[in-house]
Amino acid sequence: MWRDAALVVGKDLRIEARSRVGLSQVAPFGIVALALFAFALGPDRAIMAKGAPGLFWVAVLFCTVLAVQRSVSVESADGARDGLRLSGIDPAGLFLGKSAAVAVQLVVLEALLTVGVVVLYGARIEVPWLIVVSCALGTVGLAATGTLYGALSSGLRVRETLLPFLLLPIVAPVLLAGTRIFQAAMAGGTPSDGTQWLRLLVVFDAVYVAVGVLLFGPILETA
Amino acid sequence: MTDLAPAAGASAHPTDAPVTNTGVTPPPVQSARARTTERVIGVLALAGTAVTVWLGMWVTPPDKDQGDLVRLVYVHPGVAWVALYLAFGMAAVSSVLYLWPRTRSLFWDRLAAACVEVGVVFNVCTLVSGAIWGKPTWGVWWAWDARLTLTAVLLVLFLGYLALRRVPAEPEVRARRSAFVALFAVLDVPLVHFSVNWWNTLHQGATVLNPGLTLKIHGSMAWTLLLGFVAMTLAFVWMLLVRYRIGLLEDWLDANELDAALAERQSEGIGSPAGADPGADAPTGAARPDATPDGTPVEPAGVV
What we know:
The structure holds two protein chains of two kinds.
Chain A: H1 2-19, H2 21-41, H3 45-76, H4 80-86, H5 91-121, H6 128-152, H7 159-170, H8 172-186, H9 192-222
Helix pairs in contact in A: 1-5, 2-3, 2-5, 3-5, 3-6, 3-7, 3-8, 5-6, 5-9, 6-7, 6-8, 6-9, 8-9
Chain B: H1 5-11, H2 17-23, H3 32-59, H4 76-99, H5 106-138, H6 146-165, H7 171-199, H8 219-271, H9 282-285
């Protein structure tokens, strides 16, 4: 399973490294989103700094949808999906690999967006480890749910419109938790404010990673 | 009822009866017992609702704090119970039973679909009746309170489920896909529940479904509240039965629409060769390029 996962991660990241879709489209989109939020909230940097935690995570959610769409469309051309299934790769490994590839891209993006909210919104990071841990945990959950829904919607012609509708409400807990942890880490709140939310993220990750590992095989047969 | 009308009408032509019957599976017919049960439940639901309205509006006293606004307590919790616990709970169980290989049957899929669809209606009613109650008591139509938020998230999750169901697919594929989405949504419910609870709480505690199941209101008000729950549950069951039956007929139509239309068309051709209506064939025209444009019927003999 782990070897299969590593193979799939390598494949997806190689595709990304060569096509540069993530770098040239998804990452700039994240920055555009940050700029749009700034336009919507006015030029007052105090308001922007206050909203920075939530806006960061909303931007991450939008980018997740794009990254997942991309991750699915890589498999949709030339019967790549059938090829993957024929190759004898363990479905659980496939799930972990696809998720990990999305997660790696999201982590890069989150680093970029963190710099973005610090520079553009004037947010001050007081507890860096909370930012790092919440990004890591949130990313796992987003990548796992995204990969699950991506696989479910992969055969559909209406995928582009249906996927965000299905995925975004599911990841609402990640948005809530991530925002609260960032608030604790940015506004000078004590780290203890964030710990119950970190636990929530851990549970969220555990649930959807477990579901993916157990059910990815049947899900692949569905589409 | 009138479910059989199209097929029965087609086979009523004495000349084409054998042709029609060879190709088309008859639509599923409701048994007399099922029909009676459905009607009895419908009448009980209607009567229960009527009595609830009568008791709630005229017999029970106004509340000392909330005045007449308290009368919403006979509607709102009952509707919410149906939407949030009964409908979505049943949908979750049905979806899991569909996914479980031993109990896999399209029955569970149709039941889940019917539960979600009726549940969404009740969910909207919950939100609307809550908003009507919230405006005079809290001063706002909507508050980002934990329970309200959870209800809204559930609505969106299950609207997504219904949107997915509308995507055309083979019944088994659609059933599996929908069941997975329902399962993922249900797994999300406790997570959303805890997160919105920590996020914000304003809603009053549960009146009936609180720990220990002790009623916080008494006398005629309690009985009316209880009757409201029963009436809404009966209304839900009735809608569920009707929706399930419609789902069954829809599936039949999906599978047999073309055959039924062709059989009907052929019977027209035999009856009056020049009088065929080109519009009747329009939706299926692309699938049957061998149908001649001047209305000449395709001979069924070759198929047999």
